[in-house]
Amino acid sequence: MSFPPLFTPKTTWLPAGDSSASTNLSLRQAPAREYKVDLKEVAEYFPLQTTMTGMMETIGNLFGLVFTELQFKEGARAKMVWREDVQVFSA
Fold first, then answer.
1. Kindly report the CA angle at 47 between 38 and 60, in degrees rounded to 5?
2. Residue at 3 is within a domain
3. What pLDDT is recorded for position 64?
4. Does any domain span residue 80?
């Protein structure tokens, strides 16, 4: 049994500093389209908060870090994030 390679020569990487939402979306979905993966269906198995907590615990255990969500003073949040639902952590 053989599996397709995870990254192919066709894989396009996002240039550093590019914050274009449409570019991010199209580059992220390129491998999914190539292998006919439904990202919404896969996302059902990885709830955001559970996944973030698990990733931070794993990284914390590997590197001895403790992640803390930052709390902002009134009005300061808008200067730090581009959307209200963005979470900011410190390690």
1. 120
2. no
3. 95
4. yes
Mean pLDDT (whole number) for 66-91: 84
Q: Give 80's contacts (C-beta < 8 A, 6+ positions apart).
A: 72, 88
Distance CA 39, CA 44 (A): 9
d(CA 61, CA 58): 5
Q: For 47-62, what is each residue's pLDDT tens digit?
A: 989 999 999 999 999 9
Query: What is the extent of the structural domain holding 81?
Result: 21-90
78 vs 58: CA distance, rounded Å? 30
In this predicted structure, the answer to whether residue 11 has a pLDDT above a threshold of 60 is no
